[in-house]
Amino acid sequence: MVYGTISLCRERTPDHSEKGKPMAARKATKPVEPDISDVSTAPDEWEFETVAEEAPTRVVFDEFGDVFVGQYVGTEHIEQPIDEKGIDQSFDLLNFRARDGQLYAINSSYKLVEAMGKVDEGDWVRITYVKDLPTKRGLNPMKDFVVDRRTK
Predict the structure, then answer these.
(1) Which CATH topology does 57-149 take?
(2) Which 3 state secondary structure label does DSSP give 70?
(3) What are the residue ranges spanned by the domains of the chain?
(4) 124-147 mean pLDDT
(5) What per-residue confidence (pLDDT) applies to 11?
């Protein structure tokens, strides 16, 4: 619950000749509970426009054959600091709205960025995880995808 504040200020004696005497205390006020409807509802005639949405749910492709279907809503660049080795940790997320109306994000990869370059915002796509590709440096394999765009 939300309550008003209580002030326990003491009044100061304006006349310094009464030094050493106790100051008169002000009576504390009782907490005031506001009408919760004043802060949680709006009149029916008011209209609102969403200016910020909740963070998207991350999509993780774990197994070959995993599929995600969504409407592409754009790419979001996530700025991160440079690590102690001098490597920029920033990355891009590909954002989608699924049929359930929720936002979803997929970490970008070379293959996905290349494919999404052929897709317009608002297009529906199906992304299928098909295999892992070995990397030249022997690090974690790169995930390979098939990206299909809805035609009708």
Answers:
(1) OB fold (Dihydrolipoamide Acetyltransferase, E2P) (2.40.50)
(2) strand
(3) 57-149
(4) 91
(5) 42
